[in-house]
Amino acid sequence: xxxxxxxxxxxxxxxxxxxxxxxxxxxxxxxxxxxxxxxxxxxxxxxxxxxxxxxxxxxxxxxxxxxxxxxxxxxxxxxxxxxxxxxxxxxxxxxxxxxxxxxxxxxxxxxxxxxxxxxxxxxxxxxxxxxxxxxxxxxxxxxxxxxxxxxxxxxxxxxxxxxxxxxxxxxxxxxxxxxxxxxxxxxxxxxxxxxxxxxxxxxxxxxxxxxxxxx
Amino acid sequence: xxxxxxxxxx
Lengths: 215, 10
Hints:
Chain A: One of its GO terms (molecular function) is ER retention sequence binding. The structure holds 2 protein chains of 2 kinds. By secondary structure, chain A is mostly helical. Chain A contains 9 helices and 2 strands. Chain A starts with a helix and ends with a strand. The relative contact order of chain A is 0.16. By secondary structure, chain B is largely without helices or strands.
């Protein structure tokens, strides 16, 4: 464990807490893409198949449980909660996310560490996570204005993988035969996808104005 | 070591 990875995990945890706060405090999920939440639930379920077989550390196990439980809780809440579900922007959240699932799975069959069930699903979860934010970014683009908590949620979600890139650079220089190129390349793509969001987020922060995405 | 757990990250 290094400071970059710990900062990344904490940033990821903060993004989840901000999302839960937004939904719980406002009893609304307007501006949140259910499809991105479903993709993230799938990412964690397929990435942590080794949850009960490979014990890394207490921290690792607890964080995996938190990520799985929170992503499922958000999906269930957005689908079932009678008040929250009414605020879901169903007609704006129309990204065909099944294509993202299919593309990630095909790529995982072709490019993986080892052609085994667990490694294919691990690679699938890595590729899917890189693309999972797309429905959310498209929804924000369509809805134009971004409320503070949603903006902070997306910002921290994007920032966490940027910390992981620093972690991989650090590990590359401090550990022999460290090669996580699947996670590195995918993490780079993932972070780049946030580039324009980060730009508009920074502008709104600099001008102390409400965040506006160009329609 | 090759058998080290490749996926020690979240």
